[in-house]
Amino acid sequence: MHQEVFTAKTVLYLTVHCRNTYLPDNTNTRYLLYDVNPGEGFNLRRDVYIRVANLIRKLNDVDNWVLVLPPWGNLYHWQNVRPGLYVPWKNFFDVESLNKWIPVTEFNDYLKTEGATVGSTYVLQNYAEGWGGKWEEKYDKRPCIERHNFEQRDDGSWSGQMWATKVKTDNFTCLSIQGQAATLLPLIQRDLTSRSVFIGRAETILHDEYGGKWYWAARRSMRFARHLREEATRFRRDYLGSDDKQDKTEVKDDWRDTKPKRGAAVGGPYIAVHLRRKDFVRARGDEVPSLKKAAQQIKKLLQNENLTSVFIATDAPVMELQELESLLPGYKVVHYKPSTDFLHKWGDGGVAIVDQIICTHARLFTGSYESTFSFRIQEEREILGFEERRTFNRLCGKKSNCDQPAKWRIIY
């Protein structure tokens, strides 16, 4: 039934079906750890995961590699996470589902099996002289351009902070790189003395095949945690009259078995809008609509779909959201407000995911210009089988007829 191709090395981890994390039991297992620039947001980090996950896929053609999932810290848009507190991936994602594509484990579980040590550390950086007008895939060991949190010890080893844990590493190198994730393959494969390798600033490498079948396989495996899906389901039912059966958005338990035809999904009786404000108003002023213009576009979409309910996902302050509601008289304007208990348990990351799930299940979605939050919703809707015209839309700023998003179609 599953049509993805797995190598003999890769399928070794499939014995962990009922476990939330991969816990290897052989001494030949090796680990790849990675991190991302602290300033990058949640949805960009999800994209970097796909780049590194498919690097693991290629490494496992030869060896047995496990990807160590980097804990989530206090990201830019998260206001309710205590500084220095890091949470595991299982808070946000179904780790068992991830394990059906590549073997993964949480950082805390890595510490239990390997201790606070890493064999080799490579901090990625761009070339100081730029790419010189000629693109070629390459890497070189170079002096560090930016500050890092590693320091050399008297015995020649290095130590550094990894997610609130002091970790020792035997080898440390700053690596200027220009290329895709697979560019790192020879470097990692030649490092035969290290059982574990850490890649810092992994956002520096590019996708091997953005939008290809391997990209989509890794992306499809990134199902959200059950408790977040259940919260979104409850909200859709109670406030938007939406459920998976009538919306035709039911999925199989295993993501590998979910391959709906284009247009199979109908969506709930509401449209969903991602309205990005705050820093986007300053940085992308021409592309972000005023609240009045946003309301005009939302009203037109509701009329075109013959609907009266709109779900708004936004980072706008409460006063702006109230103003937007006042500009849509006669329509039901809905937004998700978490309970105190939910916010305490799952934080802003959990709230953002619930917002995305609700947007994913709408009859029609329109997003914000160049927002990774909107991009991820479009991908989720592709996975569910929505028509393209109901997914790849965005609100216009100063121009009445602005360019709509590129259509990144799912490939199996």
Strand content: 15-25%
Largest sheet, strands/sense/barrel = 9 strands, mixed
Helix run count: 12
Averaged pLDDT, please?
Answer: 91
Can you write the helix and strand succession as a string?
Answer: EHEHEHEEEEEHEHHHEHHEHEHEH
Please state the structural category: alpha/beta
Low-confidence stretches: 1-20
How do the strands and helices of this protein lay out in sequence?
Elements: E1 29-34, H1 42-59, E2 64-69, H2 95-98, E3 104-106, H3 107-114, E4 117-125, E5 138-141, E6 150-152, E7 158-162, E8 165-178, H4 185-190, E9 196-200, H5 213-220, H6 226-240, H7 244-247, E10 268-275, H8 279-283, H9 291-305, E11 309-314, H10 318-326, E12 332-334, H11 340-360, E13 362-366, H12 372-384
Parallel strand pairs: 1-2, 1-9, 2-3, 4-8, 4-9, 10-11, 10-13, 11-12
Antiparallel strand pairs: 5-8, 6-7, 7-8
Helix pairs in contact: 1-5, 6-11, 9-10, 11-12
Q: Care to give the gist of this entry?
A:
The chain has 412 residues and is α/β, with parallel strands linked by helices. It is built from 12 helices and 13 strands.
Notes on the protein architecture:
There is one protein chain. By secondary structure, the protein is α/β, with parallel strands linked by helices. The protein is 31% helix and 19% strand. It has twelve helices and 13 strands. The protein has helices at 42-59, 95-98, 107-114, 185-190, 213-220, 226-240, 244-247, 279-283, 291-305, 318-326, 340-360, 372-384, and strands spanning 29-34, 64-69, 104-106, 117-125, 138-141, 150-152, 158-162, 165-178, 196-200, 268-275, 309-314, 332-334, 362-366. Strands 1, 2, 3, 4, 5, 6, 7, 8 and 9 form a nine-stranded mixed sheet that branches. It has a four-stranded parallel sheet with strand order 12-11-10-13, with helices on both faces. Strand 11, helix 10 (318-326) and strand 12 form a beta-alpha-beta unit. The longest helix is centred in the last third of the chain and has 21 residues, at 340-360.
